[in-house]
Design goal:
CATH class of the largest domain: Alpha Beta
Helix content: 40-55%
CATH architecture of the largest domain: 2-Layer Sandwich
Shape: globular
Number of strands: 5
Structural class: alpha+beta
Order of helices and strands: HHHHHHEEHHHHHEEEH
Distance between the termini: 40 Å
Largest sheet: 5 strands, antiparallel
Number of domains: 2
Radius of gyration: 21 Å
Number of helices: 12
Strand order of the largest sheet: 2-1-5-4-3
Length: about 280
């Protein structure tokens, strides 16, 4: 059963404990609000301000598990705080560990500060959970992807358009990387895992079957990643990885060598992305 008074109190407490800088927002010179505003939490949680405000007042509807997960992420809750929020809202908390999609507050704080850098948080299956604005411009907006298509490795074998962003001379290697990575995950997580289910879903793909039957593991990407962007052309970027071992999430941060052609093109891409966002 939902505990409306406790839920409302907990949401208010967590909102007022956060500052704009904690979530990547800019503090205005005349700001008087203690902590975040309700409308800011609503935006961070992808819901209407009215819906969130009613929950804080204790008069809102029973929120779905999806809504609760969105609020937990928007409020930058820890896993323990997330579980508490689910129970207050009358739901069983989601699973913890490698199957969890709740990004840790520490990773979110870092991501929120990378406003001029392509960066994303991904699961061990290559599903993008969070992106910076420049990452959306570089690799595409992940928000609308569902099911297995959330995984880059899955899309690599099922959506030919995905390969347009990568140099032709690296595509055979990338096929081996994604198939080998899946093979390692199946061995690690077991035959009943999501990784194993994804392999089953890919077995009808002739290329995947051919690469899968090579039984390769340990195939790794080059140290520098190469992209082909339709607006700025070829980019060569270093990829630094930050790992959350508790949930097997990885933060990928893409940077270009200062003064290089790729650096200039990445800066141009940032301008293009800003223009696209302002025109919406």
């Amino acid at each position: 059963m939902i505990d409306r008074p406790a839920l409302a109190s907990f949401l208010r407490r967590r909102r007022t404990a956060l500052q704009p800088e904690d979530v990547g927002l800019t503090r205005g010179p005349r700001r008087r609000t203690e902590g975040l505003r309700r409308e800011e939490v609503a935006v961070l949680s992808n819901m209407s301000t009215d819906y969130y405000a009613r929950l804080e007042r204790g008069t809102g509807p029973l929120p779905s598990a999806q809504m609760v997960a969105a609020m937990a992420q928007g409020l930058h809750l820890s896993v323990d705080e997330r579980d508490h929020l689910f129970r207050l809202a009358g739901h069983q908390p989601p699973v913890r560990g490698t199957a969890s999609e709740h990004v840790s507050p520490g990773m979110l704080r870092i991501l929120d500060r990378l406003v001029d850098t392509p960066a994303e948080v991904v699961t061990e299956l290559g599903e993008t959970l969070r992106q910076t604005p420049l990452a959306r411009v570089l690799t595409g907006d992940a928000a609308g992807r569902t099911g297995n298509a959330r995984s880059l490795g899955y899309r690599w074998f099922t959506d030919p358009a995905v390969r347009d962003a990568y140099p032709p001379d690296e595509q055979a290697l990338l096929s081996r990387v994604y198939a080998g990575g899946l093979r390692e995950l199946v061995a690690l997580r077991g035959p009943g895992s999501r990784a194993a289910a994804m392999v089953d879903a890919l077995r009808d793909n002739a290329e995947f079957r051919a690469v899968w039957e090579r039984h390769e593991v340990g195939v790794r990407l080059p140290e520098r990643k190469r992209f082909r962007h339709p607006a700025v052309g070829a980019l060569e970027l270093a990829c630094q990885t930050l790992v959350d071992p508790e949930q097997s999430h990885r933060m990928l941060v893409y940077t270009a060598t200062p003064g290089s052609v790729s650096h200039e093109r990445l800066q141009l891409l940032a301008v293009i992305g800003t223009q696209e966002l302002s025109s919406r």
